[in-house]
Design brief:
Radius of gyration: 22 Å
Number of helices: 14
């Protein structure tokens, strides 16, 4: 998807200039829409939140329809609601409010990652607020959230004094931590590998602003002969080579030839060829899986910190493993004892197994302005692992695979 895209900033600003500034209040918009009666009742349980949103300016509200709420309340994700967990409920609602005014026309075929008002650190460790992915697909505007859940706009551009409301057909899913997301994605080998060192799991789940390149099961199986004898220290170094700290690199922000340091120390190199994105020689097969503290890109190879010069052959159907002499075995490494997934992720904007996101020309777009008068809700701060501590954990032993 290489189409040139006008920045959302310009489009949104143009749309704003054409808006009737005598628009209705948020409360009147919600109460007058029969299809939003469930949302209205839901939000009314939190008068302070409703007051805050009503007085806010320059926001976009993704409003789940009654049918969307019906589906949601029948799902396991509704447990926090049925348990009256007020912090979780307010976090969920905050995730449906975009920081900036985005009419439907501002959403294009290039994915945009738009910050929301979900900045409660108990639920999001992303600087600037957790994001949603917005993209135009098949003449519809679609928003992807946690676990690659997709929500389609069924009625767009109802203006109110503080911005715009879009009615969506599915409640957004706030991104989960890396461990939960990897489990849902069926990355059981990665889950098992990470569990070998509980500190690594904690680091991946709590360190803010991470990008994780997550090998799929086939990637681990393809080098199983080496992994069957790997030490915990060596495995930690390999896993650390799949993590970028301090940068949330969504697909649309990746650029060809970029070399980025990892938690393990050595750099990885991004290659973009057509619509395909590679990390060293591994191909991104599922891009932009949002997690609570950043983003995960699923890749088809395990990266080798001793093979930083590994480069792809974009013309080949499959890439050579980055571990010379490695071979596959009948079983997938590290999966013994790992529970089967209890939930699943969606196909995402790139489709199941799609490379997606390659060579995008725009990154996270600035809104027409920051929302004013609205902030996230407060809660207890989760444990955060500092960059130096995380780097020491992944590379601390200084033991590298000599292959």
């Amino acid at each position: 998807m290489h189409s040139k895209v006008i920045a959302l900033t310009a489009l949104a600003a143009s749309a704003l200039a054409q808006m009737d500034m005598g628009n209705s209040s948020l409360t009147s918009v919600l109460s007058s829409a029969a299809d939003l009666s469930n949302l209205t009742s839901f939000v009314s349980q939190f008068p302070q939140l409703l007051t805050t949103l009503s007085s806010a300016t320059n926001i976009t509200i993704l409003a789940p329809s009654n049918e969307a709420f019906g589906k949601f309340l029948q799902s396991p994700a509704a447990s926090a609601v049925t348990a009256n967990d007020s912090n979780a409920i307010q976090a969920l609602l905050s995730y449906h409010v975009l920081n900036g005014t985005y009419p439907a026309a501002a959403v294009k075929e290039t994915p945009a990652f738009i910050p929301t008002l979900l900045n409660n650190p108990a639920y999001a460790n992303v600087t600037g607020g957790q994001v949603v992915e917005a993209i135009a697909q098949d003449d519809s505007v679609v928003f992807f959230s946690g676990l690659l859940s997709n929500s389609t706009v069924t009625k767009a551009d109802t203006n109110f004094t503080g911005g715009v409301v879009h009615i969506i057909d599915t409640v957004l899913t706030p991104p989960q931590n890396v461990s939960t997301t990897a489990q849902a994605a069926g990355l059981t080998a990665l889950v098992g590998a990470v569990s070998k060192n509980p500190q690594i799991a904690s680091t991946l789940d709590t360190t803010p602003d991470l990008t994780v390149f997550a090998p799929n099961n086939e990637a681990f199986q393809s080098i199983a002969s080496i992994l069957q004898n790997i030490t915990t220290q060596q495995l930690s170094a390999v896993l650390g080579y799949h993590v970028i700290n301090g940068t949330v690199a969504y697909s649309s922000t990746l650029t060809n030839g970029t070399s980025v340091p990892t938690l393990a120390g050595p750099n990885v190199t991004i290659t973009i060829s057509g619509d395909d994105v590679f990390v060293n020689s591994a191909k991104v097969v599922i891009p932009d899986v949002l997690v609570a503290n950043g983003v995960v890109h699923v890749i088809d190879g395990v990266l080798n910190p001793n093979a930083t010069a590994a480069a792809p052959n974009p013309e080949a159907e499959t890439q050579s493993a980055a571990f010379p002499g490695a071979s596959s075995l009948a079983t997938v490494p590290f999966t013994s004892g790992v529970p089967a997934p209890t939930m699943a992720i969606g196909a995402g904007a790139g489709g199941a197994g799609g490379g997606g996101g390659g060579g995008q020309e725009t990154g996270t777009p600035p809104a027409t302005g920051s929302a004013t008068g609205a902030t996230g809700t407060g809660a207890a701060m989760p444990m955060r692992t500092g960059a130096m501590g995380a780097a020491a954990l992944f590379a601390g032993a200084g033991v590298w695979l000599n292959v």
